Automatic annotation (TrEMBL):
Family statement drawn from the similarity comment of this UniProt entry: Belongs to the prephenate/arogenate dehydrogenase family.
Domain of life: Bacteria
Originating organism: Sagittula stellata (strain ATCC 700073 / DSM 11524 / E-37)
SUPFAM superfamilies the UniProt entry points to: 6-phosphogluconate dehydrogenase C-terminal domain-like (SSF48179), NAD(P)-binding Rossmann-fold domains (SSF51735)
Sample GO molecular function, one term: prephenate dehydrogenase (NADP+) activity
Pfam families: PDH_C, PDH_N
KW Signal (keyword) present: no
Keyword Signal: no
Designated name of the protein: prephenate dehydrogenase
Catalyzed reaction equations: prephenate + NAD(+) = 3-(4-hydroxyphenyl)pyruvate + CO2 + NADH
Pathway: Amino-acid biosynthesis; L-tyrosine biosynthesis; (4-hydroxyphenyl)pyruvate from prephenate (NAD(+) route): step 1/1
Assigned EC number: 1.3.1.12
Domain Prephenate/arogenate dehydrogenase residues, every copy: 6-295
Single GO BP term: tyrosine biosynthetic process
Amino acid sequence: MSEHYGKVALIGLGLIASSMAWAMKRAGMATEIRGYARSAETRETARRLGFCDVICDSAEDAVADADLVVLATPVGVMGRVAETIAPHLKPGATVTDVGSVKRTVIEEVSPYLPETVHFVPAHPMAGTEHSGPDAGFASLFDNRWCLIVPVENAPEDAVARLERYWQALGANTERMDPEHHDLVCAVVSHIPHLIAYTMVGVADDLSRVSDQEVIKFSAAGFRDFTRIAASDPTMWRDVFLTNKGATLEILGRFTEELFALQRAIRTGDGEQLHAYFTRTRAIRRGILQAGQDTDKPDFGRIEVKR
Ligand SMILES: NC(=O)c1ccc[n+]([C@@H]2O[C@H](COP(=O)([O-])OP(=O)(O)OC[C@H]3O[C@@H](n4cnc5c(N)ncnc54)[C@H](O)[C@@H]3O)[C@@H](O)[C@H]2O)c1
Ligand SMILES: O=C(O)C(=O)C[C@]1(C(=O)O)C=C[C@@H](O)C=C1
């Protein structure tokens, strides 16, 4: 049916897994999609929605005979899931994950996997603030990046096959090493989420003394900026606990910049504020080209760019 994988097992049936299943169905890619989630309610919803051919009541049943096994749970439980499924994996199968953090997932999953399977971690840079099996849709990955993070000594054909698989789901792929992945994601995804969550907390705190005015009058800026603060708390708790090093590093840089701006406001340094906003607006608009600018953005200086 396809050059990709015959039988695919999805472990965890939320936004990402259900979107993968819908995208596979759209592309006619798998002979059979089997799914498992920990909660009976999620499994029931998935059965009703019909994005899997079979919903199993155990992870072991889901992975038996699968050519591709996708770990699509919160990152904090992926090691335990790997331990559970390991004895039931088909020799020659590829195991992948979609976790937002890579170094810790590799460290926690790899030790359990038998040498007869290939582990090829991946991370689609696509999502929404919604979660659960009914949040998925087939076009989620269209024209978005999927980062492929091969472990040491991963066979080239297994890695290339997973790349072709993600491309068939609609994504563009790029390979990255785990440390660089975790630093890039801390900058472009993890810390922005932390700041959005914090801003909502601050607004809520203020609203108690101003009769809900902050919420009531929040216009597009607040709404756009804090959309991602509606994201799943379990997922984001696990991201920060498993990407401690990179998120603390970027948070440190962020607070330094914030303190500099705070000082500029306090001292009335309009020139500094204007210069800062001019520079960052230019970056945001993509005017500064990598390699051509002499005044690189701060994340250039901390070597997020190779
Ligand atoms: N949401 C995003 O924007 C996004 C984007 C890219 C990658 N990711 C990553 O993808 C993964 C899944 O995220 P999501 O948004 O689909 O989450 P989700 O909350 O929508 O779904 C998670 C699923 O995992 C299941 N689950 C939890 N613990 C389990 C266990 N022990 N065994 C089996 N199933 C279990 C839940 O029942 C649920 O079905 C996470 O690792 C996340 O970091 C998320
Ligand atoms: O668009 C959103 O709602 C997302 O939060 C998606 C987003 C991101 O930060 O870009 C969130 C986490 C992922 O690991 C990848 C993508």
